[in-house]
Amino acid sequence: MTRDQFQTILPGALLSIGTPDDATDCLRLRTDTTAELERRGTPQLCLAQESPEEFRAFFDDDESRVLVLRTPTGELVGFGIATYRGESLQNFRPLIPDFDESPRNVVYIKLIQVAPAFRGRGLQRFFFSELESWARKQGASYATGTVSPDNIPSVKNFLSRGYREAERFKHEPTGYDRIRMIKKIKE
């Protein structure tokens, strides 16, 4: 989905680079989503691993990009985080032949979340597109991410964006099943 296409879905919506001021709203969405999934008995669909302080650090970090989408009235629609930092990247080293080519060769799509009122409109794919575009400009050749095999909408979004399943594993320390996804984003 392009920026023009998302404007037809959400006229006047504003996409911006996340700042520390945005972190509180995004953290609330992450916390609410995690609680919602726990109430439904499906907490494995969204792993909220970082402490609030660690989460806020993504918003003021040269190694990460946070994109925030809001309605014209300022309501949070959703956000996406891509990063070059984190131990998760180490898990991809054996799966990508030229992983160590440069420090910016592989970007990790850390998290994309859309508020419940705005789900089902293709916005997760929009965040994928925007984060991948930023990563390519940074010199990344690959984008990676992890997803629960039970999170069918997110698995479908990864696949529709051209990602492939690299492996299945158990997340430590939770023991939840996860899929590592990889996509070559630059030739």
Outline the structure in words.
The protein has five helices and seven strands, in the order H-E-H-H-E-E-E-H-E-H-E-E. The protein is an alpha+beta fold and 187 residues long. It has one domain (3-184): Gcn5-related N-acetyltransferase (GNAT) (Aminopeptidase, 3-Layer(aba) Sandwich). The two termini are 21 Å apart. The mean pLDDT is 86.
Brief characterization of the structure:
With 187 residues, the chain is of the alpha+beta class.
Per-chain topology:
Layout: H1 3-9, E1 14-17, H2 23-39, H3 52-57, E2 64-70, E3 76-83, E4 106-114, H4 123-137, E5 142-147, H5 152-160, E6 164-170, E7 177-184
Parallel strand pairs: 4-5
Antiparallel strand pairs: 1-2, 2-3, 3-4, 5-7, 6-7
The total beta strand count reads 7
Q: pLDDT below 50 for ≥5 consecutive residues: which ranges?
A: none
CATH superfamily: Gcn5-related N-acetyltransferase (GNAT)
Oligomer: single chain
**What is the annotated CATH architecture?**
3-Layer(aba) Sandwich
Strand order of the largest sheet: 1-2-3-4-5-7-6
Query: Major β-sheet, in short?
Result: 7 strands, mixed
Determine the structural class based on helices, strands and strand pairing: alpha+beta
Helix content: 25-40%
CATH topology: Aminopeptidase
Number of domains: 1
Radius of gyration: 16 Å
Q: What fraction of residues sit in β-strands?
A: 25-35%
The end-to-end distance, rounded to whole angstroms, is 21 Å
Number of helices: 5
What is the N-to-C succession of helices and strands? HEHHEEEHEHEE
CATH class: Alpha Beta
- Rounded mean pLDDT score: 86
Write down the overall geometry.
globular
